[in-house]
Amino acid sequence: MSDAGSGPRVSRAGITASVMLATTIYALDSTIANVALPHMQGSLNATRDQVSWTVTSFVAAMAIMTLPIGFLAQRFGRRRVFLGCIFGFTISSMACGAAGSLSEMVISRILQGACGAAMVPLSQAILLDTYPPERHASAMSIWGVGVMVGPVLGPIIGGWLTDSYSWRWVFYINLPLGALAFLGIMVFLGESPRKQVRFDWFGFVAFAIAVGALQLMLDRGERNGWFESEETIVEAAITAAAFYVFVVHLATSENSLVSLKVFKDLNFTLCTTLMLVVGMVFLGSMVLLPLFLQQLRGMTVLDTGILLAPRGVGMMVTMVIAGRMAGRIDSRILMSLGIVMAMIAMWATSGFDMNVDDWLVTWTGLLQGGGLGFVFASSSALAFVTLPGQFRLQATGLYSLFRNFGGSVGIAISVGMLEHFAAINRGELGERLTVFSTWFHDPGATMPWLPPGLVGTAMLDLELVRQGLMIAYLNNFLLMAVIGFIGLPLIALLRTPKSIRQA
């Protein structure tokens, strides 16, 4: 056992329980607020695309702060960094619950995401070091179950708290959970050796500027008319320049935040790319579906949470199955099966209507979650199995970064395209109604539910908006299904070592 498991008070079970609790808090908070977005929208006086900033700011901050995790763990020790992250995450959660405006909420979510960035990669690296290599697949399945508790319980708890109390309590609930995780890490986790290393400020600032500018461009692009706006052009230019400077710096600097040597490992490179794609589909759909069910289906927050829970259940079950099947079935087969399952579910979701049956929402969520569970578990095992141990902490951070970055881009694109499709669809539907349409001359025969005159015209216009928005949701779900299938060719290139096949 390595440093993660050193110390007289440390036990493997205690480390696992404490690390999983911290991971669960992060996973819970990444989904618990989604069902409350419509309520937050009204309370914070925000539009549909503006309230999505509370999600994208959280994910983008996590992506930025994932990069220096390796430096922080080496300089200050894993235990200190972990405790600091849990403390900061809990305090910023309280600030989110107390936010009185959209700007306050976004700032608090940025702080929350920045503090929570290290929790997942550190927990993953600690478990990999705590368990021997032959038990890595099982350890990652256990870790994955902790990650998936959030998608299972998050929507239900978030819906119940919002319905019974207020959306603010979806953040306040982190206080007791954070305190318990803090105590567990203090008691069970031993400190790792520290090194005097220099921080690569130049690389970090370049990366932060690139991600921040890209997120602004994606979040505000639709509102500004994309490249018809000078603001969008400037943001795109800054993004391209900053990413270029960052990549050149990585290739030429001896003291960079990330060693490009980790990308020489084919499995790791392919799996991180796959996580970028899966993150776009998973987190993008997780934001759209609650909005659809509440705004168009007319469901309560609690009922929405209950209908979203099967996705997490399916994910948890298949992650356990994947762990038990490690060594018996080629992981690439499980990953391919998972991609196909998830994308079939997304394709079925693109056929929903405003009166969609609860059972249809349930089984599509179960199927999508089950497919993503196979992908996450198998990818986590294959990504690090051929990677040298000295790169493990840095690699787990990059792995989480790609998933979070993909999710941030997916959310921004899906919400932006939702507004774009809705406006286009509303216009196309309206073009079919003219003064020569039958309704204007005999409304009672064609649409008896509409009153005559201006009142009926206003109601008809409102219905056109709803129908246009409905089609926009379906277009987005179909787009997510198409994006997901990009992952299949990547899986075919993965290598499965003999140590996995013969375990």
From TrEMBL:
Residues 15-499 form the Major facilitator superfamily (MFS) profile domain. The chain crosses the membrane at residues 12-33, 53-73, 80-100, 106-128, 140-161, 167-189, 201-218, 233-252, 273-293, 305-326, 333-350, 370-389, 401-424, 470-494. It is a multi-pass membrane protein. The keyword Nucleotide-binding does not apply. InterPro entries: EmrB-like, MFS, MFS_dom, MFS_trans_sf. It is found in: Cell membrane. The keyword Methyltransferase does not apply. Keywords: Cell membrane, Membrane, Transmembrane, Transmembrane helix, Transport. Its main location: membrane. Pfam families: MFS_1. NCBIfam families: efflux_EmrB (TIGR00711). Belongs to the major facilitator superfamily. EmrB family. This is DHA2 family efflux MFS transporter permease subunit. It comes from Reyranella aquatilis.
